[in-house]
Design brief:
The complex is a heterodimer of chains A (169) and B (277). By secondary structure, chain A is mainly α. Helices cover 70% and strands 0% of the residues of chain A. In chain B, the strands form two sheets. A six-stranded antiparallel barrel of chain B has the order 1-2-5-4-3-12. The chains are: A mainly alpha (169), B alpha+beta (277). Chain A binds chain B through residues 20, 23-32, 36-37, 39-40, 42, 63-64, 67, 70-72, 75-78, 80-83, 85-86, 89-90, 92-93, 128, 132-135, 140, and chain B through 1, 4-5, 7-16, 21, 24-25, 28-29, 32, 35-36, 38-40, 42-43, 111-117, 120, 149, 156, 164, 186, 247-248, 272.
Chain lengths: 169, 277
């Protein structure tokens, strides 16, 4: 890994591997012991990974990456094609315009910003579904944003140590 | 940003209104199969480990149990064969068409939709095994749902307990016909527009009525769980528990009936609102 440190494709591979791990976490079935309702707490892992990479390496990960990942998630979850693509493009845009400030923030301040971003993500998804007549509003929709914000520090530290270990800049 | 955002919106609209994106979607589904398989690994390996550590005695007693169950079921099927031929003879006497045996294909669950609002599962058979949209899905105890999305090697099944799903049913005891809606919460169906004077009570068995040409006649759908006649309300609240083990069965059966040609013309009209017949 260290050998490919300053190699651009090596970095891209690492980034996509983390995004794919996020997708696996997004579809992994809950064990049967836990109640179904806990499923509402599942955060949008792919969105969190995307926000991290945009914040850390905005010249490498941007709106096109977010869009591609969104299309893949749409196919995986069987949602309308373009739903996650649109919401990821939007949060990628906001994250790109905020990344310099986000870097200055402490990890918990980042978590609050992330709550807003993930909330936006959920809202856009809900809007599209409700335009298509597929959903009714409930505050359950915001729970993944909350759990995502709480998990952010760990995701952040993990991905940062991965980035430093592979020496990506 | 604007370009890709607009593109996503257009794609969403196209996907909602037409079926043009089904081809690309199934190609992408194949490409993304490794992710689904990886996500299923923990469940699969847990089962593998369980079978490694089960003892000789356990396995032996399981085999004996299964053997006796097999004999029991064989006897039942023999009786059933006699009944079917008798039934068809009687139908012939009445001048109506003979009922054909349904063919089934066994499929295994490979994924569950992580969104608890959507009760959907993914199975490992697709259009390569001639699975089609609208195909009824059963397990060993009753109706599970129907296929809503097919790709070459996997398909997506909407469960009968999903909010968007309804199935026409008939009460076995009184032959009353109703429509059973999914409630979206756990293992529950709701019968709608049940008259306060209707002859229905707790414990009544609900079978698929075959109306709507989507589901075959006579498969168990659920058992009535709760009947509440509210004074002042025109309809009673009736809840039923699905017979199929919607959250537990790992293997499901895909049913091929002879009315398939008819069903295909029904489903090709649109994919959004006509689910559940």
């Amino acid at each position: 890994m260290i050998a490919v440190a300053d190699n651009k494709t090596g970095g891209l591979v690492t980034i996509w591997i983390t995004i794919i791990v996020g997708m696996v976490l997004a579809v992994v079935p809950m064990p049967q012991m836990v109640p179904v309702e806990l499923g509402f707490l599942r955060p949008d892992w792919v969105a969190m990974v995307l926000v991290y990479w945009i914040m850390a390496l905005p010249h490498r990960v941007g709106i096109p990456t977010a869009w591609l990942a969104g299309i893949a998630v749409d196919v995986l979850l069987g949602s309308l094609i373009g739903l996650h693509a649109l919401s990821y493009v939007l949060i990628a845009y906001v994250a790109l315009s905020l990344y310099q400030r986000l870097r200055m923030f402490s990890v918990w301040q980042q978590a609050t910003v992330l709550f807003a971003l993930l909330g936006l993500n959920q809202l856009v998804g809900f809007w599209i579904e409700s335009i298509a007549g597929l959903a009714d509003w409930s505050f359950w929709y915001l729970l993944p944003a909350l759990s995502g914000a709480f998990l952010w520090p760990w995701v952040f530290l993990l991905l940062r140590s991965l980035r430093r270990w592979t020496g990506m800049t | 940003m604007l370009g890709l955002g607009l593109l996503s919106l257009v794609l969403g609209a196209v996907d909602h209104t037409t079926s043009w994106l089904d081809g690309p979607r199934s190609v992408l589904t194949i490409a993304l199969t490794p992710i689904v398989v990886t996500a299923d690994l923990p469940t699969r390996s847990a089962r593998g480990i369980q079978s490694i550590f089960s003892s000789r005695e356990d396995l032996r007693s399981r085999i004996t149990g299964l053997e006796s169950e097999l004999i029991f079921l064989r006897v039942k099927t023999e009786r059933m064969a006699a009944l079917i031929s008798e039934n068809n003879r009687l139908r012939g006497l009445l001048g109506s068409a003979a009922k054909l045996q349904d063919n089934v294909l066994v499929a295994e669950l490979v994924g569950v939709n992580p969104d608890p609002e959507e009760q959907e599962v993914v199975i490992d058979k697709g259009s390569e095994d001639s699975v089609f949209v609208g195909q009824p899905v059963l397990d060993s105890r009753g109706l599970v749902g129907q296929v809503v999305d097919v790709s070459p090697f996997s398909s997506r099944v909407l469960l009968i307990s999903d909010e968007r799903h309804s199935v026409p049913v008939q009460v076995l005891r009184s032959n009353l016909r109703f429509v059973a809606h999914g409630t979206g919460i756990g293992q529950q169906l709701e019968l709608q527009h049940v008259n306060s004077t209707a002859d229905i009570k707790v414990g009544d068995q609900l079978l698929s009525s075959g109306l709507g040409n989507r589901f075959p006649v006579g498969y168990p759908v659920g058992v009535v769980d709760k009947v509440a006649f509210m004074p002042g309300k025109p309809f009673a609240d009736v809840l039923a528990k699905p017979s199929a083990q919607l959250d537990r069965s790992r293997h499901v059966l895909l049913v091929f009936t002879e009315t398939r040609v008819l069903e295909e013309t029904n489903t090709s009209s649109g994919k959004g609102d006509d689910r559940g017949g």
